[in-house]
C-alpha cells in the first residue's frame, strides 16, 4: 500500500521531480511545496503520513524548526530529512527536533522509499554509511567536514558556473546561448562539460546536486552578477 506523503523543499524543480518519481511507484503525493517559510504550516494542514523535508544547510541554526513545529502540532506525521552529508551535530539536531530519519540527498529512489516505509512504521532511519561517517568525525574532531559545495564550485570555470545557474533555472540550450551571447553549439559544449565535471548524467541531476550542496548560493556570493536562482 502506498504512502500518503508530502515533499517539501526550497527548490521546486527537485521537489517536483522527487514527487513525480514517487507517484510512479504507487505513492500518494499530497503536494510538492517549494517555500521553506510555510513548509510546516502546509504539512500541518494536510497531515500526511510521511513528510520528506529537504534542507541544503543542516548545520545552520533553525534548520530543523519546521520539524519541531510539525511534530508539536501533528505528532503522527513521520518526518524524513533529505540533505547533504551532515556533521554529527547535524544528524543529532535533526533527531532532536523530532525527525524520524535522515537520508542523503543523492540517495537512490529505492533508498528514499525504504526510509519512508520504515518511518511510517515508527522506525528510526539513518544509513549505516552516515552513522559510520558521524562516528569517524566524532573520534577525529580536528578533521574539517567536507564542504561539497565549495569543492564542486572549484571544479568549474566562471563561465561554467553561469551555465549551471541557468540550467538550474530551467533554461534550455537556446536560452542559455542568448543570455550569454554565445552560439548554441558553444552553450551545448559548456553544458556537457558541467555535467561531466559534476559527475552527473542529466541537467536535472546537475540542478538537484547544485541545489542540495548549496553550490548555487555560493556561486551568487562569488559572482553577484550571475542570474539569481528563483
UniProtKB/TrEMBL annotation:
The keyword Transcription is annotated on this UniProt entry: yes
Residues annotated as domain HTH luxR-type: 149-214
Q: Does the keyword DNA-binding apply?
A: yes
Secretion signal: which residues? none
Q: Cite a single GO BP annotation.
A: regulation of DNA-templated transcription
Domain Response regulatory positions: 4-120
The alphabetical list of record keywords is: DNA-binding, Transcription, Transcription regulation
CDD domains of this UniProt entry?
LuxR_C_like
**UniProt cross-references to Pfam families, sorted A to Z:** GerE (PF00196), Response_reg (PF00072)
Top-level division of the source organism's lineage: Bacteria
Q: Mind telling me what this protein is named? A: Response regulator transcription factor
Amino acid at each position: 500500500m502506498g504512502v500518503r506523503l508530502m515533499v517539501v523543499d526550497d527548490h521546486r524543480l527537485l521537489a517536483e521531480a522527487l514527487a513525480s518519481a514517487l507517484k510512479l511507484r504507487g505513492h500518494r503525493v499530497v503536494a510538492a511545496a517549494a517555500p521553506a517559510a510555510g513548509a510546516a504550516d502546509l504539512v500541518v494542514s494536510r497531515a500526511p503520513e510521511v513528510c520528506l523535508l529537504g534542507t541544503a544547510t543542516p548545520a545552520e541554526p533553525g534548520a530543523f524548526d519546521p520539524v519541531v513545529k510539525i511534530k508539536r502540532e501533528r505528532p503522527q506525521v513521520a518526518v524524513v530529512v533529505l540533505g547533504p552529508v551532515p556533521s554529527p551535530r547535524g544528524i543529532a539536531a535533526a533527531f532532536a527536533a523530532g525527525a524520524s530519519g535522515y537520508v542523503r540527498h543523492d540517495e537512490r529512489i529505492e533508498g528514499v522509499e525504504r526510509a519512508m516505509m520504515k518511518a511510517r512504521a515508527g522506525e528510526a532511519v539513518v544509513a549505516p554509511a552516515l552513522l559510520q561517517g558521524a562516528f569517524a568525525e566524532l573520534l577525529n574532531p580536528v578533521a574539517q567536514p567536507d564542504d561539497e559545495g565549495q569543492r564542486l564550485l572549484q571544479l568549474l570555470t566562471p563561465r561554467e558556473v553561469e551555465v549551471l545557474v541557468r540550467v538550474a533555472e530551467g533554461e534550455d540550450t537556446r536560452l542559455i546561448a542568448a543570455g550569454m551571447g554565445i552560439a548554441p553549439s558553444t552553450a551545448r559544449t559548456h553544458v556537457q562539460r558541467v555535467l561531466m565535471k559534476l559527475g552527473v548524467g542529466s541537467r536535472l541531476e546537475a540542478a538537484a546536486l547544485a541545489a542540495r550542496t548549496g553550490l548555487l548560493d555560493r556561486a551568487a556570493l562569488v559572482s553577484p552578477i550571475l542570474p539569481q536562482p528563483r
